[in-house]
Amino acid sequence: MAAASAESIANARLRAYRLLKMVTYAAFCKEPKAPMSHSHQLLGISNAIVDILAQVDEQFIAEIGAERGAMNLIDKDRARDIYDKMGPAKEMSGGSVANSVAGFANLGGDAAYIGHVHDDQLGEIFNHDMRSLGIDIRLQPATDGAPTARSYILITPDAQRTMNTYLGSCTELGIADVTADTVATPKLILLEGYVWDIAEGPALAKQAMTIAAENGSAVALSLSDSFCVERHRDAFESVVRDGVQIVIADEDEINALLQTDTLDASLEALRDYDNLFVITRSDKGSVIVQGDTHIVQAATPVEKLIDTTGAGDAYCAGFLYGWANDWPLEDCARLATHCGTQVIQQLGARIEPGLLDSYSSGSPLT
To answer: Domains in the chain: how many in total?
Structure first.
């Protein structure tokens, strides 16, 4: 009897020990993971293009046979011919999202960039220019393939820009360039709509969104232009529904996405979405929409319009800088408007360092 009693006690202790181990293990498994730290505030993924800006007269536009005010795609020979005819020019890293990343960095943000350039003179200009702003360039230049992309931005006295763009190396960006190592763990990934025009663009964009979801990064999509939206509307609609948290667009682009004719109709359609929509309207200001939040930001009048190149890119940079620093959406829109207003009064799309010194929204500049 004593032996049986001792055995019962031993078995009870063993069961209690095992139960304690199970409870401890379960508690350990349910312990929430510590939030992953961000490698950067912003990572841009886009077409890497060198902007070559020159002020020209109307006769020059006519002589080269370009469509005034449009973006004309050209081949390598045509690019060389236009360059030979141009006068003094200013060269800098460009492309829509690259401009926004550069502006974000010049505001004081911590930024990184993925884009494809060739190991040539313009590729060196692009990477050197971005690195000089403190931007972490995540890819090495390619030693084979097409030359670095460039856009000849010809600005007439009325501030109209006519772009002649050779896409070259930027179209060779591929899914192998977008990995857990190159993307890292940014707070926000900014994708350019034009990426969907690249052969592997849809796949690399999907991969970037998958990595973002795994790392707790948000994803923003810049719709690029209304023609781009029309080419890829179904794909954009799909990623906006699943994968993208922020959509940045102008009025024509958002109407194209939602297949509406007016902004009012688009705003009504946005009731079905949970995303944050940032909509620019040129001299009519901008509208920020997220759920029941609806913010109208007025434009700032300017005395002299010099160059409209990159006004939307600068707005994007300012808005995302505020968002990345957890500002209220109203203050994000005010800073964005300030950035866009400054850029259209100068030559080129670049937000210059120190711009925040002239900004007074009442928000802490952190």
So the answer is: 1
The pLDDT-based confidence of 348 (bands split at 50, 70, 90) is low
Region 130-152: mean pLDDT is: 97
Q: Is residue 30 part of a domain?
A: no
What is the rounded distance in angstroms from the CA atom of residue 42 to the CA atom of residue 111? 5
Higher pLDDT, 203 or 302: 203
Is 25 within the bounds of a domain?
no
- On whether residue 366 sits in a domain, the answer given is no
pTM: 0.85
Q: What is the pLDDT of residue 350?
A: 75
Q: Give the confidence band of 260 by pLDDT, cuts at 50, 70, 90.
A: very high
Which range, of 41-50, 155-164, 256-265, 288-297, averages the lowest pLDDT?
Answer: 155-164
Q: Is the pLDDT of residue 356 over 90?
A: no
Judging by DSSP bridges, how do beta strands 161-166 and 149-155 pair with one another? antiparallel
CATH number, residue 229: 3.40.1190.20
Tell me, letter by letter, the H, E, C secondary structure of the chain: CHHHHHHHHHHHHHHHHHHHHHHHHHHHHHCCCCCCCCCCCEEEECCCEEEEEEECCHHHHHHHCCCCCCEEECCHHHHHHHHHHCCCCEEEEECHHHHHHHHHHHCCCCEEEECCCECCHHHHHHHHHHHHCCCEECCCCECCCCCCEEEEEEECCCCCEEEEEECHHHHHCCHHHCCHHHHCCCCEEEEEHHHHHCCCHHHHHHHHHHHHHHHCCEEEEECCCHHHHHHCHHHHHHHHHCCCCEEEEEHHHHHHHHCCCCHHHHHHHHHHCCCEEEEECHHHCEEEEECCEEEEECCCCCCCCCCCCCHHHHHHHHHHHHHHCCCCHHHHHHHHHHHHHHHCCCCCCCCCCCHHHHCCCCCCCC
Residue 354 pLDDT > 50, yes or no? yes
* Higher-scoring residue by pLDDT: 233, 364: 233
Q: Is residue 362 part of a domain?
A: no
The residue range of the domain holding 201 is 42-356
Residue 18 reports pLDDT greater than 70: no
